[in-house]
Specification:
The structure is a homodimer of 415-residue chains. Chain A has 13 helices and 17 strands. By secondary structure, chain A is an alpha/beta fold.
């Protein structure tokens, strides 16, 4: 198994405005070859610092990919630094100079003197054609692998990676198959999830298991690397099946690209049912998620954001006495909001939230972070109390996720 | 001037799906202190590799910031690696354990055993409080500077950086006065903005000018570094005043921390006026932004998401004939939605959107990306047609920003 490191070069990538995004496309191409990216970094336009970084990467990884710093100016130090790190010479290539001259001729421009710098190749290296710019790439075989120099602009880098680097690396690497199995999970914390499935996955290094976590949404990815597809499938079954069994209904989908709102939309369409929302503390976030996917109007009719007590009464018909007696944050109001929204729109289901997003508000019984979620369905209205910590944004985001998950479970029961 | 390096930790950041974006906010905070970022890297959850990386960074830079890997699982190796790189011990802190226990108690959850790992501090290090999560940060003074450990989730990392790391670093750095003047701008593209103000700011290296851009929201930051406050103020006036004059009403606030919805809330409270929304294509995003700030219920009553034609009729009273004749995406429907929402709720103002978010839909006259924005106000209803490119998410986000900006201008006229 080969490892790779990626070094992006350019002082502008060390400002608060810019990110190196080339490494994502490079990582994907490498992963598809069975090459793991074990580190990546950004180095400024500093010859000595870059030379050191390349030398260290070459010691750690079989494949080292450099992006950027191949331009014609003094700032462009990648060729020099790479040659120095390999302790090889830079040789002027009249052939590359001719290609550069042709490129400028096609654009009807005169070639500047400093563009000649771009015609220098590392001894033993191979030039990679760049139809979209002036800087050729370079592919240099090393004792244990390869050092690759790519231009920084994505429209130059991406085709060069696909057309010239991938075939050369594939020819050097043992042939392997990579297959992925994913689970998306919600309704549980990251450490609880890990506690449940670590006894299963930690026994294996292949498949490699990754757990990702974002705003109450969890992902488990298993990636198997084998000689044949059959072996990979068998491994994913061996590890994935017990994980699926352990997690049960905490898993809302095994499609890595289907968010929770996608699952809900699919269930609604399947039931030929419709949905409306009645939000207080989530303030429109649930509606915004439900409408984030194309085609959502097939089952999502719309929603109400009733932020004040008066609007809950006026728009959804929640009784003034109830609010006066129990406040707007309670089980009964959540139920009345959902029922009111369903009545007024004729939808099959309605989903409601009322709670304390903070930083102010809350009671001893229901502190900030408490949210009542209501689901009004044909023949039943379900209310659940949830509680999340953190600031206003976190409470709102997590409550949105929890509310959608409560709806998912009700929809399952009506299937 | 001090240099810094940033190391983001996490194998998920080495996949084709994820980027380290924390380093941008960290870089900005460091730059504001006069600290330059000279390198950044991503390392997987590999104890030895991370230890080496930290040790090398500490040799090169005065300040080293680590993000992530402070969770409760086996995978979370940052504490161990940092201690090893510094050749210091990890000490269990009963005080931190108590704080963790309290955090779980507040959430009514039992603390898992492995969360105790998060109560270990590097010898000589100081715990940094994390009100938004379980992992405390750590600030460790070194011979020539500091090593800082921050949790990975942005909502935990950002406040910790601002409230606990910046003050500690400032106290260690040579005294200089740094003053910032900011403008927040919307309704113009990034390159147009730059074209307008570059003739002013490029004449100066002090103050340093930064232009940031996010989803139709632009920021201009001028950062002056001087020996005295008076000099800094004079510089900011010399450069800032002509910029303010050139941009005029494109500037919606000069408070760096006040988003557009904050400006609108302030104007509404000042007018003792109230607001409702009636959204189609933005699907709740406008309501979600208006309710994102605490205290928004003072002026924001609530909203309607009328996603289907039927709901526009039923809930807002838009005429079926009008929709039949002109479709739901037109000036008249935007006006009728806003007027209907205002009538039904008794609000002073109503803001509506109807348009094609894509990828499907649209006409030759009104292609995907076209949105009609309506504002119903006490003596007038204003409709404006806007158009944004890109995918569904971009159209929805940019349209939300444009709609809020149109409302801001109407509110200004009613002041």
């Amino acid at each position: 198994m080969a490892n790779a490191e990626i070094i992006a070069i350019g002082s502008e990538l060390l400002t608060p405005q810019r990110l190196d995004t080339n490494s994502l496309a490079i990582t994907e191409a490498l992963n598809n070859l069975g090459v793991e990216v074990t580190g990546k970094q950004v180095v400024g336009d500093d010859r000595q610092r870059l030379t050191d970084a390349i030398r260290e990467s070459l010691q750690r990884a079989e494949v080292v990919i450099l992006c950027g710093g191949l331009g014609p100016t003094e700032d462009d130090v990648t060729r020099d630094a790479a040659a120095q790190a390999l302790q090889r010479k830079l040789l002027f290539s009249p052939e590359q100079e001719a290609i550069l001259a042709q490129f400028f001729q096609r654009l009807n421009r005169t070639m500047a003197d400093n563009n000649r710098r771009q015609a220098y190749l590392i001894q033993g290296g191979e030039a990679l054609p760049n139809p979209n710019g002036t800087a050729p790439g370079q592919f240099v075989k090393t004792d244990k692998g390869a050092l690759v120099l790519l231009p920084g602009p994505p429209r130059e880098l991406k085709p060069m990676m696909a057309n010239h680097v991938v075939p050369r690396l594939r020819a050097m690497l043992p042939l392997q198959v990579i297959k992925v199995r994913s689970f998306r999970i919600t309704g549980i914390g990251e450490s609880d999830l890990d506690r449940m499935i670590a006894p299963i996955y930690t026994k294996y290094t292949n498949p490699a298991t990754t757990i990702l976590f974002a705003s109450g949404d969890l992902f488990v990815h298993l990636r198997a690397r084998c000689d044949t597809e059959k072996e990979a499938d068998a491994l994913l079954k061996e590890v994935g099946d017990p994980i699926a069994e352990t997690l049960g209904n905490l898993i809302y989908t095994d499609d890595a690209n289907e968010p929770l709102e996608g699952v809900i939309g699919r269930m609604l369409r399947h039931q030929k049912a419709s949905l409306v929302t009645a939000e207080s503390c989530t303030g429109g976030l649930i509606a915004a998620r439900l409408t984030s996917l194309p085609g959502s109007s097939q089952s999502f009719l719309g929603g109400f954001v009733t932020y004040t007590d008066m609007q809950k009464q006026k728009v959804l018909g929640v009784s003034a006495e109830l609010i006066c007696e129990r406040t707007a944050v309670c089980e009964e109001v959540a139920a009345a909001m959902a029922d009111g929204a369903r009545d007024r729109t004729g939808a099959t289901y309605a989903l409601s939230t009322t709670g304390y997003a903070g930083p102010d508000g809350g009671t001893e019984k229901d502190p900030v972070g408490t949210v009542y979620v209501g689901v009004s369905a044909p023949h039943e209205t379900v209310v659940q109390r949830i509680q999340h910590g953190g600031d206003r944004e976190r409470v709102r985001t997590y409550s949105t996720q929890s509310a959608l998950n409560i709806l998912r479970k009700v929809l399952q029961n009506h299937c």
